[in-house]
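Practice problem 4.
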């Protein structure tokens, strides 16, 4: 029996070598100027020996497909928190999710020390409405401990038929014992753009996530503002707080609405030529096809000059950091709030056979002035902390950053390595504590109630409006 298994191991080893050699020749064809390292024969031999031992000695029979899939998972998850193997279901969910509708709880998550860590709850979803916070550590899904599960496995368990319930056991900084939170799964329909004239002459646009139609929906919101006002806007607040990111062309579209034509929005640096991009404020970089009508071309000219404040916090990641960084570098807007998440790496989805794919980190994002977003984020020009509910310890609610994640990618900018994030130019006094909505109620009244877009007690938003009004007075003088 053992001799048979050794033959199986040798056959498998030969197959692996064959695949690797073919991949190596492909690499030579595509990168003729780049030296290709020789195949790690000893490491591959060790891999096949482990494969053979599992097949022959493990307590229960294991299918080859499972072992190979887990090996692929391990290769990718060992690189950084964002690279992953997508099986057929996960690949389908990813494609559906970018269109703004999918099933689940509505949480952007990552992996930390074997547990699921919340990057940001998505607005108006079961997770958001139940009070899940950025930085929460999920240790149990129903009765299943998270320790030992892959991120894909954990996400699969959180998804399910709409209307069914799941119990999350959550550890939160500042809480003395784990929190038990029961959520009801739902079809997640994300309204990525919300807008309102918060005061006469002052517009407010909230982007919850960057999706296929985010740029188009934001353009409609801006056009509505100018139709509602006979006079140009006096100021605009762009709210990117707790926006976990999304599609890159959505970030370019939002930036283009406010920047001069052909201004640099973001550039990427990677090892391959495909990973090196320079995206400017031009329609070629945000429209899905050449035949699509440019939805930004009819925006009023005042959109390029209206005084702006961009609100950010620790839940602002990826595409939202691109927008904030571009507007900050071009001095087009004042960035207000707290340090952003620092997710400045690019994940490319590479389809494989059988409707599967890998999500692989291929490059880093840089702002127009050459600042790497990765593991640093965007520092606000004016630091403004968020209001907290009186009597509730919310310490650490938004303390999670990319740099806190295990195996996070380095910054990539040699001049920036090891440096602390830049200090904001101005730091406003700490906000007053907000009284709970009712007796024995710990609900934060600074957050908008269900069905509302803004709250009168939103300290950061109020400070943004005060700043815009001050700028308006100075301009008149």
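Answer key:
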């Amino acid at each position: 029996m053992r001799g048979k298994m050794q033959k199986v191991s040798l056959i498998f080893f030969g197959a692996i070598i064959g695949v690797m050699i073919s991949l190596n020749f492909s690499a030579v064809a595509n990168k003729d100027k780049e030296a290709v390292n020789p195949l790690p024969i000893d490491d591959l031999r060790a891999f096949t020996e482990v494969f053979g031992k599992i097949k022959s000695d493990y307590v229960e029979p294991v299918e080859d497909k499972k072992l190979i899939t887990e090996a692929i998972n391990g290769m990718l998850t060992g690189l950084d928190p964002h690279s992953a193997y997508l099986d057929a279901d996960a690949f389908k969910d990813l494609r559906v999710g970018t269109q703004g509708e999918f099933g689940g709880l509505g949480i952007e998550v990552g992996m930390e020390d074997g547990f699921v860590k919340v990057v940001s709850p998505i607005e108006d979803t079961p997770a958001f409405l139940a009070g899940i916070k950025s930085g929460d550590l999920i240790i149990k899904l129903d009765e299943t401990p998270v320790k030992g599960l892959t991120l894909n496995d954990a996400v699969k368990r959180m998804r399910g038929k709409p209307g069914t319930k799941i119990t999350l056991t959550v550890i939160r900084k500042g809480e003395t014992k784990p929190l038990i939170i029961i959520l009801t799964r739902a079809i997640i329909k994300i309204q990525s753009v919300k807008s309102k004239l918060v005061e006469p002459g002052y517009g407010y646009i909230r982007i919850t996530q960057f999706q296929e139609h985010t740029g188009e929906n934001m353009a409609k919101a801006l056009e509505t503002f100018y139709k509602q006002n006979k006079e140009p806007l006096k100021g605009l607040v762009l709210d990117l707080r707790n926006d976990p990111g999304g599609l890159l062309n959505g970030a370019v579209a939002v930036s283009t609405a406010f920047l001069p034509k052909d201004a640099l929005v973001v550039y990427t640096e990677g090892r391959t030529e495909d990973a090196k991009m320079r995206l400017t404020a031009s329609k070629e970089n945000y429209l899905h096809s050449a035949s699509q009508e440019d939805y930004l071309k009819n925006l009023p000219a005042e959109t390029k000059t209206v005084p702006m404040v961009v609100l950010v916090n620790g839940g602002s990641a990826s595409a939202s950091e691109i927008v904030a960084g571009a507007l900050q570098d071009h001095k087009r807007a004042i960035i207000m709030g707290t340090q952003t998440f620092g997710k400045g790496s690019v994940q490319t989805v590479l389809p494989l056979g059988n409707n599967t794919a890998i999500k692989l980190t291929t490059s880093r994002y840089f702002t127009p002035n050459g600042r790497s977003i990765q593991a640093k984020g965007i520092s606000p020009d004016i630091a403004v902390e968020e209001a907290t509910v009186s009597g509730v310890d919310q310490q650490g609610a938004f303390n999670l950053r990319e740099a806190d994640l295990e195996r996070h990618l380095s910054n990539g900018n040699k001049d920036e390595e090891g440096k602390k994030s830049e200090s904001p130019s101005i730091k406003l006094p700490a906000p007053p504590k907000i009284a709970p909505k009712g007796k024995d109620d710990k609900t934060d009244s600074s957050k908008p109630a269900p069905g509302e877009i803004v709250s009168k007690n939103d300290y950061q938003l109020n400070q943004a409006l005060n700043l815009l009004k001050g700028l308006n007075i100075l301009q008149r003088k």
